Amino acid sequence: MSELQAVIFDFDGVLANSIPAYRSAVAEAAGQAGIDDPDAGQIASSDTRTVARRIIEQYDLEIDTETLAEQIENFALDRLLTTPHIVPGAVKLVSAIRQAGLRTAIASLAPRRNIEAVLRQGGMADYFEAIVAAEDIVNIKPNPEVFLKAAEALDLAGRDCLAIEDSPTGLTAANDAGMVTVALTTTVPADRLGHAHYIAGSLAELTLEKLNEIYLAHRP
Fold first, then answer.
1. What pLDDT, on a 0 to 100 scale, did the predictor assign at position 1?
2. pLDDT tens-digit map of 47-72
3. Looking at domain 6-17+85-218, which CATH architecture does it have?
4. Where are the domains of the chain?
5. For the residues of 86-117, what is the DSSP string, one character each?
6. Residue 206 φ then ψ, to 5°
7. Helices within 46-176 (DSSP H only)
8. So what's the pLDDT on residue 24?
9. 147 in Cβ contact with 158 (< 8 Å)
């Protein structure tokens, strides 16, 4: 049985407390289109274009998906740069993983520029060897593409990796990529994350030793 070689992190809701910023950005963009209090669905488990398309279809808006998505992303970036959004425990955990010689990557449906901006703001710009973002994939979660591409960027197979997620669709994607999965209850309650191999409240609860223990217990 091989040892853990890499940890793949989702971004929004895992490394960054950024979902409220996206919810607020969606509300502002929809408000400019004349929609108050839009129902955007599960922002945490969708890319911006999917959210934009959902709003356009639901409210029959005369605006194209790319324009609305760009507005949402711009409004979100403004909010993300206002205050630090890296979650407690992230720097310590990722530092420990890297110091032990393990690989690190991000697999997210967020746009790359927003991910990189938040990482720079939080002093983590150089903490990840690879970032696979919304513009790098065709199929969003629960399709495993984003996790498979993250593993591929590290020259690893899914079975060599542990993924940390906060959404049911993200967990499905990581599981289908062959990874051992850890779920955080930062976005949805534990009863919706039952298909994870392990559930924790936040990154601050996790250590490298614990991640190795989880991986070895569930690695096929």
1. 46
2. 888 888 888 888 888 888 888 889 88
3. 3-Layer(aba) Sandwich (3.40)
4. 6-17+85-218, 19-80
5. BPTTHHHHHHHHHHTT-EEEEE-SS-HHHHHH
6. -100, 145
7. 48-59, 65-80, 90-99, 112-121, 145-153, 168-176
8. 84
9. yes
